[in-house]
Amino acid sequence: MQTAHTKAHLALREMLRQICDKADIHPHLMDRRLYLGKDTPTGGTAHQAGTLRFGEDPKTAVLDLDCRTHEVDNLYVTDASFFPSVGAVNPTLTIIANSLRVADAIIACLR
């Protein structure tokens, strides 16, 4: 037996599915069973990351360990692109923490 709450929930999910279809949003984003380890397509996560990986070697990383580009002086990147890959949860707090760390490194360079 469906409760009013269950019916409303199902109706909202259907409405969201229709909106996503019109906006050409991947329907698998609504699947709560989407976990790491499965073959997740590029658009299969709402937290894309890893486009400008960081590391010590300019041959394998775009950014140094302070998220400064190896090839362009004084260009720092502090969004999720420095991650090697996306984690299992929202990365906002980690991005903020890294941004504060990078800001401290920039301030130290200016002194």
From TrEMBL:
<dbReference type="Pfam" id="PF05199">
    <property type="entry name" value="GMC_oxred_C"/>
</dbReference>
<dbReference type="InterPro" id="IPR007867">
    <property type="entry name" value="GMC_OxRtase_C"/>
</dbReference>
<feature type="domain" description="Glucose-methanol-choline oxidoreductase C-terminal">
    <location>
        <begin position="43"/>
        <end position="97"/>
    </location>
</feature>
<dbReference type="GO" id="GO:0016614">
    <property type="term" value="F:oxidoreductase activity, acting on CH-OH group of donors"/>
</dbReference>
<comment type="similarity">
    <text>Belongs to the GMC oxidoreductase family.</text>
</comment>
<keyword id="KW-0285">Flavoprotein</keyword>
<keyword id="KW-0274">FAD</keyword>
<keyword id="KW-0560">Oxidoreductase</keyword>
<protein>
    <submittedName>
        <fullName>Choline dehydrogenase-like flavoprotein</fullName>
    </submittedName>
</protein>
<dbReference type="InterPro" id="IPR051473">
    <property type="entry name" value="P2Ox-like"/>
</dbReference>
<dbReference type="InterPro" id="IPR036188">
    <property type="entry name" value="FAD/NAD-bd_sf"/>
</dbReference>
